[in-house]
Each structure stands twice: as C-alpha cells, then as structure tokens.
Specification:
One of its GO terms (molecular function) is protein serine/threonine kinase activity. One of its GO terms (cellular component) is Golgi apparatus. This is non-specific serine/threonine protein kinase. It is an enzyme of class 2 (transferase). The termini are far apart. Helix content is 41%, strand content 20%. The protein has 2 domains: 94 residues, Phosphorylase Kinase, domain 1, CATH 3.30.200; 196 residues, Transferase(Phosphotransferase), domain 1. The protein has a 6-stranded antiparallel beta sheet. Strands 7-10 form a two-stranded antiparallel ribbon. By secondary structure, it is α+β, with helices and mostly antiparallel strands. The mean pLDDT is 91. A hairpin with a 5-residue loop joins strand 3 and strand 4.
C-alpha cells in the first residue's frame, strides 16, 4: 500500500475513533465539539449506557490558582440551585496542576445539553431578517433571567455576582426559557477596594473574565478606593435587555469596529434604533440599568419590580 493510502486510512481512523471518558463510574462518548472560551472547552457527549446527551465542560488548569478557581466553579453550582441557572449534573477533577514540572490538571463538569443553543444564536438569527420579538415576550424572558440573577445576589453566606452575564452565556430551554450558564466568572459580589494593588488585580481579572460589550464601567477602570458590588450584573442586564430588543449589546458595534469599548461604556451614551417597535417604557427600563455610576443603578429587586410594571402596562392591567 502506498504511503498516501496509509495516511488516508490513519486519518479516517482518527475521525472514526470516538473519545471516551469516565466521570464517577459513568462512561461518556464525545460526539461533537461545541465551543471554547479562554479557559475551557465544551463538547457534546453521550452517556454510553442511557444514550442521553449532555454537554461537558473541560477546564485545563496550569497552576494551583487555576485549579482553585475551577473547583470553586463546582462549589458555586452547589450553592446556586434555580430553574434559570444551569445545573451541574456531575463533576470530577484529575491530576494536580504544578507549573514547576509543567503538570496540568483537568476539571470536568457534566451539564445539561440545550439543543436550541444560546440567546446570542437566537438573536443573531432574528437580526438577519429584523425579526423583532414582541415586547411582552421580551419582558417575560428578561424577568426569568432576572430571577436567575437574583439567586446569585441572594446567595448565602454572602451575595455572589455572575460578572459575565451576556446573551452568549444564556442557553434556551423549551419555550425559549432562558438558563444562565458559565459560572467560571462568579465571584464574591461585594469587594471593598483599598489600594492600587487590589484595584489592579480586580481590573486584570475583569479583563480576563468579563466580556467587554457587557462589562460594567467600574470594572474597566477600578478606582484605588471604592466599593464594587452586585450592581456590576445590573449593568450587564441592561445590555442584555437592549440586545433582546435590538439583537446586540449597545456596545457590540463599537467592539466590532475596533473602537474603544471602555470609553463608550464609561460615557454611557446609549442610542436606540428608531425602526424597532418598542416604546419609551422599555427604553427607560434599559436606561435605569445603564448608569455609569454604579451607586445610581438599582438592585435586582427594583429591576424586577420595574419590569413587572412595564409588562402590566403593556398588557393593559394598569
């Protein structure tokens, strides 16, 4: 057999051979690569016994801090139990990360598989044909997202913030039920920043883990002496509601052009497309969350109350 024929067979063998792995006695077969972020990859897998499909998130840790954060993500899944926050079905970790000997470890999370994809996918599809959702539907989806966020903000023993809320981190269940995913950026919500070192560390973490078009202004340029709280998520919610209405975050276009998102965000200059069928009430709800000064932003309870008021008005109940 010539070398070309042999190489083709070898290549076909690689394609046909499915990767398998075991988590706590259950065997899974990898079916498809779904995506990757800065710290992890997500694959579609099948339980070898039941043939049920799941998503597996694999985090490769290069050092003790990576490993600590990955295990913390599993812990946050045990703290946050809510129908609008993704469930972690099972998890495991293998090895010990040690940069001295170039050793890595792996943390695996078995998650439900949502075949409808993300809210970002849905909005991109709708955006191509200017297929606007009706305002009632938008507010119903938004209120469910808010309920999920409230679970983080009410966490015990201390409030948590998601810190990377965006349409790409919301998967869609049946009937467009939104489910918040990716708890890799979750952190203690309330941080008292005392000094330039703490400020720079927080700013660096935000730059790594919080997507620019949805990142709150106080995380772009962290003051040396300030208080950061859960209202970083409220800014992101404002961007998500804007995207539900107009298909993209108000800062996506700036990002795509390569202009300074930080400047655009810190100026908080929001404009609304005139062609979309949304009234001033929804726009005011968006603007109430997109306040450059976090102290002027509402907490999640006020956002939910305001959204319910706008919805009631739309339905003619007030």
């Amino acid at each position: 057999m010539n070398s070309l024929g042999l190489s083709l067979i070898l290549k076909m063998g690689c394609i046909c051979a499915k990767e398998t792995f075991t988590v706590n006695g259950r065997k899974y077969t990898v079916r498809e690569h779904l995506g990757e972020g800065g710290f992890s990859t997500v694959s579609l897998v099948e339980d070898s016994l039941t043939h049920k499909k799941y998503a597996v998130k694999k985090i490769v840790c290069h050092g003790p801090e990576d490993q600590r954060l990955a295990l913390k993500e599993i812990e946050y899944h045990t703290i946050i139990k809510h129908p609008n926050v993704i469930e972690c079905i099972d998890s495991t970790h293998k090895g010990t990360a040690d940069p001295v000997v170039n050793a890595t470890s792996e943390v695996l999370l078995i998650l439900p598989y949502y075949h409808k994809g993300t809210l970002a996918n849905e909005l991109e599809r709708r955006g191509k044909s200017s297929d606007y959702m009706n305002p009632n539907e938008i507010l119903e989806i938004f209120l469910q997202i808010c309920d999920g966020v409230k679970a983080f903000h009410e966490a015990k023993p201390e409030p948590l913030a998601h810190r990377d809320l965006k349409t790409a981190n919301i998967v869609l269940g049946e009937g467009l039920t939104p489910v918040i995913m990716d708890l890799g950026s979750v952190a203690q919500a309330r941080i008292k920043v005392c000094g330039a070192h703490t400020a720079q560390t927080l700013q660096d973490v935000a730059a790594e883990r919080c997507s620019m078009p949805y990142r709150a202004p106080e995380l772009f340029n962290v003051d040396s002496y300030c208080m950061i709280d859960e209202r970083t998520d409220i800014w992101s919610l404002g961007c998500i509601l804007y995207a539900l209405c107009y298909f993209k975050s108000p800062f996506d276009t700036v990002y795509e052009r390569g202009d300074s998102v930080a400047l655009a965000v810190m100026s908080a200059n929001i404009s609304f497309p005139e062609s979309a069928p949304y009234n001033e009430d929804i726009q005011q709800l968006i603007l109430s969350m997109l306040k450059a000064n976090p102290m002027e932003r509402p907490y999640i309870y006020s956002v939910i109350e305001h959204a319910h008021d706008v919805l009631a008005k739309l339905e003619g109940r007030v």
